[in-house]
Design brief:
alpha+beta
Length: about 55
Amino acid sequence: MGELRADGEGESSRSCPVCGTAITDSHQRRVVSCIEDGQATHTHFCSTDCLEDSLES
């Protein structure tokens, strides 16, 4: 099931910002949502490891 992002891009266009792996609908996928200046952003990671790596840097 491919969901659309708020910016209109489809599931197939997402990639992990840490390792570049394509994001899929798997149980390992992690999403961090933030609100800045009234805008919601959603950052998708392929795994908990990549999420933790992004928080460490």
